[in-house]
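note to self — DONT lose this again. spent like an hour looking for the file last time. sequence + predicted structure for the chain T wanted, 670 res
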Amino acid sequence: MLLDINLLLTSLREDLGYLLPEDSCHGFAIRWLEACLVGEENLFENRIKEIHSYGDSLIARIQEAQDKEENQLTEEDKTLLDIQAFFDHMELQQSPNSYTSFFGRPFSQSDIESISDIATSDAMRSRGGLCKIYSHPGMYTKEEVTQYFDKLSDVLDNATSNSANECWGILIGEFYHTIAVTYTPGIGWRFMDNEQYPPLVFSKEETHLLAKEIVEVLTAKPSIPHIGFNCSIFTVADNALLPAVTTALNQFSEKLALTEEMLTRESDGYDLACIATQNEHTWILAEYLKYGLRIDNDYGNYPLIYLAVLHGDLEIIDFLCHNGAEINVLSANYTPIYLAAKNGDVASISLLAKNGADVNKGDCITLVTPVHIAAKNGHVPVITAFAKLGADLNLGDDKGATPLHAGAEENCVEAIVTLIGLKVAPNIADDNGATPLHMAAKRNSVEAIAVLIKLGANPNLRNDKGATPLHMAAKRNNTEAIEALLNREADPTLVDDNGATPLHIAVQMDNSEAIATFAKFGADLHCQLDNGVTPIFLAAQYGCISAFEQLIIAGVNVHSTCEITVENLQELACHCSEKIATVEYAERISNNMSQFIKQHHHAGKQTISITPYDMACIVEEKDLLCLLDNNHHKRKLDKLELGFFSYNEVKKSKSTLQSTNYINMIPNQR
């Protein structure tokens, strides 16, 4: 029975937070080959069945197992943790460029053996590790695919004397997809594609059926006459037959003809030059030039120089640079040196710069520089390398954000220290006046906040809207950032251009944890906006129940009054809760406020006294009124003193609202 494993893997990889969850064929194929080579194919297949049986509940079950102490783990828990490790190992093979910091050096999908040394099974380690003994690219007709694998099986049979003691792993990589095959001499093939799992079995006499399966999987359209792929063969390092088979495969490779006609073949937009560049075969590119053929084609907007940089192949990069490749090409909206910086590849950066690459040219859309993306990804050696190459470390993107902003936003402490050590100003601002500290506060990057302030960043600088880093943290309920800032002399009394303190912002966003943190550090819980509104009044105005409750817990008197002018009260009525912000509701609240003003405005007095409870009644905040009426804060209002509607009418009017003509109720505070 075929298992829909590919869609499930994609869904689970997305839930696990991997960067490209839809891509898993390469990593899955390698994990399967490793299992087959050490006799653990049954274990692999049982694991896939377990993954399939858990389905969408798998992630939650893994999390439960991870939360347990080691001595509490059941056998099922251990199985779940093994599944997590399986996914992680698969991810490292699938997307190695994303884990340069983990590896300590850049790896690409070509570095299968090196990655396997880091992330593989105990059984594979006991056999000395994974060993690649053959790699050859080709662009074949359908008939030639059968011929190729027929000859390959003969080579393996002869070199091993038909010994079935070891199987041989074969990775078949096309431009868009990777599949795997094993061959057991004298017996036959097993074919694995993650899009039609489980594996298929073919005898040696059925090689033509294997070839047909390969062609169907790797050919986008039946009408395409050619199929291109790279064939790599793997075994374990302690395989006694390794030397003999390696010699036989080298001889086989030398006999494979490569004609000009084969070099001109294409398959679904790619050619042999593309396959060769992905798999470190510089000699193929040399053959193109020998016949006067072009090597400057684009493959889905990626020229060969991009593919070479993606795989970190210095030999091919150098070959292309010396044979007319455009070093500062922007086919994919960014330059090759930007790609190298993103991957943390100092060697490729140095080689590209040596051949004339612009060290400040990166993404042509966002204007993000190579240094910027390096700082964002925490690639400190890359930052240092660019500094030595004369890159502008202060150059901003299309919004003026600099590499230091990127490092702060991503909490990359080492990048921050390195950039400031290279004389980047810690208070450098973007086009909106935001400093790196603003970005760190926005993202709750606590370590970045600490190191920025330690190295000279001012925690009280305002952006173009007057907001300090504390305002940014309060808006997003980033309590750790708030604590880090308050512990380092950030001033909670500073107001933004609307006259709001960070506490006002926290209240309006209904961020109770932020409010509790401000209270813990002694912030003024009665601070007023320019219009006289206090935090608890603001909570009532907007129906922020969590904020209201937290302010009461912090000791704010719910009966406290605000003295507000008639003009400002009328303005407040226009900016109340968004929960039921319909035209009908807005008109009714405006009328409520007008009646309140009429009943409570005294001649000769410029302001009117109003409580949070009054405001909750006016804006008909049912939940807030219930909160107050069901505890000791209830006012003596069995017959509401406002006189223009009763509490029951509040409930009735709110429950019968039908209008769907929503309007913007967000205020411009003043």
